[in-house]
UniProtKB/TrEMBL annotation, chain A:
InterPro entries: DUF742
Protein name from the UniProt record: DUF742 domain-containing protein
PANTHER family to which the protein is assigned, alphabetical: DUF742 DOMAIN-CONTAINING PROTEIN
Domain of life per record: Bacteria
Species: Streptomyces glomeratus
UniProtKB/TrEMBL annotation, chain B:
InterPro entries assigned: Gliding_Motility_GTPase, Gpn, P-loop_NTPase
UniProt record similarity statement: Belongs to the GPN-loop GTPase family.
Keywords, ordered alphabetically: GTP-binding, Hydrolase, Nucleotide-binding
Pfam hit, one: ATP_bind_1
SUPFAM superfamilies listed in its UniProt record: P-loop containing nucleoside triphosphate hydrolases
Protein name: ATP/GTP-binding protein
Keyword GTP-binding found: yes
Cleaved signal peptide residues: none
């Protein structure tokens, strides 16, 4: 980082807090080359063989957290970000790494226009009423 | 922390996920509405600063800072084990509108919350969803101290198309918010049905 001559306070703004630190986990990467942007509600699912992520030295603790959380139950990208208290952009990069490692796969949400089956929307209505 | 393990070889249930956006002016009750029906959590997203944000986001001294943090509200409603509905409160400030495009992509529909004392605050959201043909419902949040107007008066004031539902609601009340969301889904169903009809004829 070109921090020369700049006080550390320059890395902060009042609203946002530190802006650099989260991306240290991604080794500075802000996007994952191979992947197009994952939707916030794309669901991350741990592969059945992804049962020993801690034994993999190439993974960061955050990678391991994602593998474990998504083994327990598939999680959306938004949920992972909220649960791990990480910016969405960081989670996208980390999930991209895990897809490359074949430890997780991602199922993309079906666009509503392609929800051929209207019964899903009826189920949503009934589910909401039953809340 | 102990994580439960699913049975080896058992396929995980991959839920169908849907999202509804909650838009409206600052302080109109978006966070309250999301919180009334779901456990609410803040979601941080870091975005590349755009031209639109340049006059506002003063980066002098931090020219290397190209991203900004935007927080939005996010709620999850588990309808069934394999069916999850997410609510996203859209960021209120106009300069974060570029974020909306991502949120809006693939959204089932939207709620535009309105306060009759400052109806103009929701014009921008109404325009946005109209332009992108995203089905939306206008929810008039009935603040106790605000005068009540019939839904039709609000419709005229906002110059809404006849098919856009206008619902009077109380963003604090779970039951009321449920009805608003049901209306969004019903409207979305009618909307896609119309869409198909117009394509096939």
């Amino acid at each position: 980082m070109s921090g020369e001559g700049q006080g550390s306070s320059h890395w902060f703004d009042d609203e946002a807090g530190p802006v650099v630190r989260p991306y240290a986990m991604t080794r500075g990467r802000t996007n994952h080359g191979a992947q197009h942007r994952l939707d916030l509600i794309a669901v991350v699912v741990t592969e059945p063989h992804g049962d020993d992520p801690e034994g993999d030295p190439s993974l960061s603790p955050e990678h391991v957290d994602i593998v474990e959380l998504c083994r327990e139950a598939p999680q959306s990208v938004a949920e992972l970000a909220a649960e791990l208290d990480l910016p969405v952009g960081v989670v996208r990069v980390l999930v991209g790494d895990l897809v490359d490692e074949e430890l997780v796969h991602v199922s993309r949400p079906v666009p509503p226009a392609e929800l051929v089956d209207e019964s899903i929307l009826r189920d949503v209505i009934n589910g909401l009423r039953a809340l | 922390m102990i994580f439960g393990r699913s049975e080896r070889g058992m396929p995980q249930v991959e839920p169908v996920t849907l999202k509804i956006l909650v838009a409206g002016g600052f302080g109109v009750g978006k966070t309250t509405l999301v919180g009334a029906v779901s456990e609410i959590r803040p979601l941080r997203t870091e975005e590349v600063l755009t031209e639109a944000g340049r006059p506002v986001d003063d980066t002098s001294g931090v020219e290397s800072k190209h991203t900004t943090t935007v927080a939005m509200d996010f709620g999850r409603i588990t309808l069934r084990e394999d069916l999850t509905l997410y609510l996203f409160g859209t960021p209120g400030q106009d300069r974060f509108w570029f974020l909306w495009d991502e949120l809006a992509a693939g959204a089932l529909g939207a709620v535009v919350l309105a306060d009759t004392r400052r109806l103009e605050d929701c014009f921008a959201a109404v325009d946005y969803f109209e332009r992108r043909t995203i089905p939306f419902v206008v929810g008039v949040n009935c603040f106790e101290e605000a005068a009540r107007y019939p839904a039709e008066a609000v419709r005229r004031a906002l110059d809404l198309d006849d098919d856009v539902p206008v619902v009077l609601c109380d963003a604090r009340e779970r039951q009321s918010v449920k009805e608003v969301l049901v209306e969004v889904v019903r409207h979305a169903m009618a909307y896609t049905a119309d869409d198909r009809a117009s394509v096939s004829t």
